Inverse folding.
């Protein structure tokens, strides 16, 4: 998950390196940029991610946080729908059956509200205290994560995930992890991505 504050001036280079190191899904998130600037930002990150994918010889998906219109305009692979985004069914109609759609969950009430939604995955957060920003709500812990993993969606564990606890998230039932600080704040984004992927794959 991109963050200009965490990624700094070389965010695009860090995204490229992270994808080359093993990241296979990039969420471009920036609520501060207006439409035109956000589109340019998404296009730049998308290009960087695809360069990283070519270097690794493996595919990458790039989704845009909230802004289905920007995802369409940039030619991104889908959208991540926040609490104030359009309904998933409407986003699916606009983006098409092959688009990648996700949403964020923080509690059981939100999971119930997504019943029947045409989503490919959900972020469950925060599993641990975040690395890239102050905690805004209590951490769910692995037991809380496990409860979400019995639901109908593929779960990506988010919040404070590192190479040291990523395997535990998989053991709790998560299909993968979503991180910001563990990669963007690392001195070596490619190495950090590789370490996370190795932990998830039990290597």
């Amino acid at each position: 998950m991109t963050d200009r504050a965490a990624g700094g001036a070389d965010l695009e280079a860090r995204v490229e390196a992270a994808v080359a190191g093993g990241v296979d899904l990039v969420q471009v998130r920036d609520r501060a940029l207006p439409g035109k600037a956000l589109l340019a930002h998404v296009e730049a990150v998308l290009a960087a991610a695809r360069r990283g994918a070519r270097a690794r010889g493996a595919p990458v998906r790039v989704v845009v946080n909230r802004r289905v219109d920007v995802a369409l305009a940039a030619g991104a692979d889908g959208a991540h729908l926040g609490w104030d985004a359009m309904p998933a069914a409407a986003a699916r109609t606009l983006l098409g059956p092959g688009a990648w759609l996700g949403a964020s969950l923080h509690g059981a009430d939100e999971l119930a509200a997504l019943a029947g939604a045409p989503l490919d995955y959900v972020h469950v957060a925060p599993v641990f205290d975040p690395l890239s920003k102050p905690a805004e709500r209590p951490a769910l812990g692995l037991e809380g994560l496990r409860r979400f993993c019995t639901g109908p969606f593929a779960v990506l564990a988010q919040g404070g995930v590192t190479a040291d606890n990523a395997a535990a998230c998989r053991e709790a039932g998560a299909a993968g992890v979503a991180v910001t600080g563990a990669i963007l704040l690392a001195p070596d984004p490619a190495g950090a991505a590789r370490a996370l992927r190795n932990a998830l794959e039990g290597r």
User: Anything to note?
Assistant: The CA atoms of residues 163 and 198 lie 8 Å apart. The chain has ten helices and seven strands. The radius of gyration is 16 Å. The chain has a mean pLDDT of 94.
